[in-house]
């Protein structure tokens, strides 16, 4: 059965859902409140489970060509002393796909082109929806309405439509740290061009990850993490001075990075997650992406889980034929436990990295000095192979 599907949100999750549903033969409209698509954050690490889905949807080759080559992972302490360094090749061989760190803007454009810009309406805010036996009527801020058989709620971690679907409020939880992220030209005096290099110490972190597939203009996706109280003043004009204070005395590559980033191109995010939801569906509504499982970025799985959501929703609709309610129940069964586990693991990793328990953080630093890659890649392998495409 061909459905009319309305997707609210043109981020990674919404566009991947639209593409997956189109590939299954459904008629899809995407609507977003923003007048222009400006991805939040410099880049995204699309791990192997996400890349497999993008390949199955026909855009994986474009993503691989545009992404960075991340073949090695390395940790240093804040003074620059190496803690561990290992090849990611064994992981990629085991799971059958390399990771693809990529600019968010590039990934979003690839997905938008695949969905078709004519199927996407920007600058139109969905303020609610009503359900009856015949379908869904979405209501917009300009007084207009649109009808559909199914609404996909993919409007991000601040979603109000999620609350309409669940019938209750959903609070965001501060994870205790602030993340500044930015793109910079990749040069060997910052880090090797094929390595994901991280510096850790004093509950803080600096990361440099290769993210560009163009050898003529290589770039790193860089971020700084600092534990701070919530609602700390945010002054873009002072980012360089503020970060220089937080990372004073850190290793020379960190000092070079502090000198080179463009504050005007930097995003600053107070990291939040939400408590795992008991259900990801409402009547004729599927909740997807950050609206369904806003999580700390410490496992690099936020975007990948949105892609998994999209794939599973399209498959359950195929399997259920014209029974939308049955498809939604199958989607819920397939996704609730999976994302619950990953939200909790990401929260635990964020706590360990950023000193929620200082003793646990010190123990982690000591573990890194003994790490040969087996434990770290084992956790990644578990996450990747737990996805719908294995």
Summarize the structure.
With 390 residues, the chain is α/β, with parallel strands linked by helices. The protein is 38% helix and 27% strand.
Description:
This protein has 390 residues and is α/β, with parallel strands linked by helices. It has one domain (4-172, 273-385): 3-Layer(bba) Sandwich (FAD/NAD(P)-binding domain). Helix content is 38%, strand content 27%. It is built from 13 helices and 18 strands. A 7-stranded mixed β-sheet has the order 5-4-13-14-15-12-16, sandwiched between helices. Strands 7-2-1-11-18-17 form a 6-stranded mixed β-sheet. Strand 1, helix 1 (12-23) and strand 2 form a beta-alpha-beta unit. The protein is globular and about 65 Å long. The two termini are 28 Å apart. The model has no long low-confidence stretch (mean pLDDT 96).
What tags apply to this protein structure?
alpha/beta; single chain; six-stranded mixed β-sheet; 390 residues; 18 strands; FAD/NAD(P)-binding domain
**What is the 3D shape?**
globular
CATH architecture: 3-Layer(bba) Sandwich
Terminus-to-terminus distance: 28 Å
Calculate the mean pLDDT score and round it: 96
- How many structurally independent domains? 1
Tell me what portion of residues adopts beta-strand conformation: 25-35%
> What's the CATH C level?
Alpha Beta
Rg is: 21 Å
| Major beta sheet, strand line-up | 5-4-13-14-15-12-16
Instruction: Say what the CATH topology is.
Output: FAD/NAD(P)-binding domain
Determine the number of helices (DSSP H or I, runs of at least 4 residues). Answer: 13
Unreliable residue stretches: none
The CATH homologous superfamily corresponds to: FAD/NAD(P)-binding domain
- Structure summary, number of beta strands: 18
Helix proportion range: 25-40%
Question: What structural class should be given to the helix and strand makeup?
Answer: alpha/beta
Sheet with most strands: 7 strands, mixed
